[in-house]
Amino acid sequence: MFGPRRSAPHTARALALLPTVLLAAGCASGPRYVRPADPQESSYTQTSAATVQHVSLGKGPPDAWWTLLGSDQIDRLVALALQNNQSLAGAQAHLAAARERIRVARGALYPEVDAAAGVQRTRFGATVLGPLAKDFPLFSAYAAGAEVSYDFDLFGGTRSRVDQAAATAQYESDELGAVALSVSGNVVIEVLQIAALRAQIRVMEGIVADDEHMLGLIRAAREAGAVSAMDVLSAQSQADHDRTLLPPLQQQLSAAQDALASLSGVAPSNWTPIEVELGTLKLADDMPVALPSELVHRRPDIGAAEAQLHAASAAVGIATANLYPHLTLSARIGGEGLLGGGPSETAWNLLGGLTMPVFHGGALTAERRAAQDEYQAAFAAYRQTVLNAFSQVAASLQALGNDAESLLTQSRALDSASASLALTKQAYAAGNAGYLQVLDAQRLHQQAQLGEVQAYSQRYVDAVKLLLAAGGRVDLPPDRSRNEKAAFQLKP
After folding, report:
1. If exposure means fewest CB atoms within 10 Å of the residue's CB, which of 199, 308, 358, 429 is most exposed?
2. How far apart are CA 256 and CA 179, in angstroms?
């Protein structure tokens, strides 16, 4: 049953007061989050970034950072991976779930309305009716109507929970951005690795072909009695040794192709390799790097760390609200009557409840202190994430500068080794040098060739790492973007 009956005018007056009460309660608010100040540093290294080749400080790389490599094939591969990668699909689902939890938390800001109905079969006993109980018949009654309840949230506990849910959603959004950045970066690095391995395989195939050609010449000279059997064995040994270097390179190439297929969401058996040549790549004239004050707004790992700090701040608000009174209002209105017939009447009741913590063994204050400690831990983690980001950018800047010097010295080494090998072969043909000298010259030439390929590819890999570390972004479709922060902000 719905309880004591009231007249309709009283019911109307009581319900008319509800909007005023709800509006007054909505003005209360818990503590608000304040984001950390931007860093004051203007550079990443002690030396000026202008001394590093192809680097300029500014707002950072474009959203599609990989386009700075100037390869349509890389563009297509990254687009394929961003469309099909399963880690991205999982991160997107986590973000969708977090968004729904914001709606769940916001639901507590509004009154809850439920429909209720009940039927009962009753016989009153002497406790209720005394001696008349034996004369009162069994009866069946029903009650049906609406139930309304509202939590006034005087001290912002509910709003802090909404804020916490919004921060968690922002964390998932930044995690999605981090996964997208990682996928795009890994795709480009795998493509560069494949291109470098193919170039090294071509170098080794050329070396093996030279070995075979040299072995044929030495065998002919042996038949003419111009060289010893030792020269033939040395040439054969060198050719056999150089052939052993090809299978490991081919295995690494296969593994890299399989990894690229997995990143693209395709089974290796269905993967059609897209070959990219190192020689077709060309870095942009300027490598854009975000300033430190801009980097903290661009890197998803820093954004995720800040979102965790925001959630920790909201947890402090929740624990603080639990220390203060809790006011709720509930009301019921509906009809009731007998199943056997008779008039049906309207019944209602209005109930206000106030609970205030008095003694919980220190649990509530301890919970608040624990939340404050967790906030300090999240703040330290945020600062460390920023420092790690700055360190990565600094290391990448230094690596890119060293790569330019390494490529220059490797090119010089290859020129010297090529000239030395040509002269040694001429001297050997004229009988002025032994085959061991030819072998030494061949080894130096081989190492120089492979070294130049590795230095060339390492320069691109370090350029990619710099773009990733220095504020690179991924232009995901709207449902996969990390720019939802404004949508999750609570209105004042």
Report:
1. 358
2. 20
CB atoms within 10 A of CB 118: 13
Q: Of 115, 176, 181, 111, which Cα lies nearest the Cα of 150? A: 111
Tens of pLDDT, residue by residue over 288-330, are: 889 999 999 999 999 999 999 999 999 999 999 999 998 999 9
Quick one: which H or E segment has residue 169? helix 157-223
CA dist 437 and 430 (Å) reads: 13
Residues 241 and 259: their CA atoms lie apart, in Å, by 29
Q: How far apart are CA 409 and CA 406, in angstroms?
A: 5
Q: Which of 42-51, 59-68, 331-340 has the lowest mean pLDDT?
A: 42-51
Q: Residue 364 corresponds to which amino acid?
A: L
CA–CA separation, 69 vs 226, rounded Å? 53
Q: Please tell me what DSSP assigns to residue 36.
A: P
Q: Quick: pLDDT tens for 379-437.
A: 999 999 999 999 999 999 888 888 888 989 999 999 999 999 999 988 988 878 877 78
- The CA distance from 464 to 460, in Å, is 6
- Whether 340 and 140 have beta carbons less than 8 Å apart is answered as yes
| Residues β-bridged to residue 151 | 328
Measured between alpha carbons, how far is residue 466 from residues 191, 195, 254, 288, 347 in Å?
Answer: 17, 19, 27, 9, 72
Determine whether 432 is exposed, middle or buried from the number of CB atoms within 10 Å of its CB (0-12, 13-18, 19+).
exposed
Strand pairing report for 345-355 and 326-338? antiparallel
End-to-end CA distance of the chain: 41
The secondary structure of 199-228 as a DSSP string is HHHHHHHHHHHHHHHHHHHHHHHHHTTSS-
- The conformation of residue 324, written as its DSSP 8-state character, comes to S
Q: What is the pLDDT of residue 477?
A: 62
CB 120 within 8 A of CB 141: yes
Mode of pairing for the β-strands spanning 287-290 and 55-58: parallel
CA distance linking residue 331 with residue 150, whole number of Å:
9
Q: Residue 227: what residue type?
A: V
- Residue 272 pLDDT > 80, yes or no? yes
Sign of CA dihedral 441, 442, 443, 447: positive
Rg (CA), the chain: 38
Q: What is the per-residue burial (b if ≥16 Cβ within 10 Å, else e) of 319-345?
A: bbbbeeebbebbbbbbebeeeeeeeee
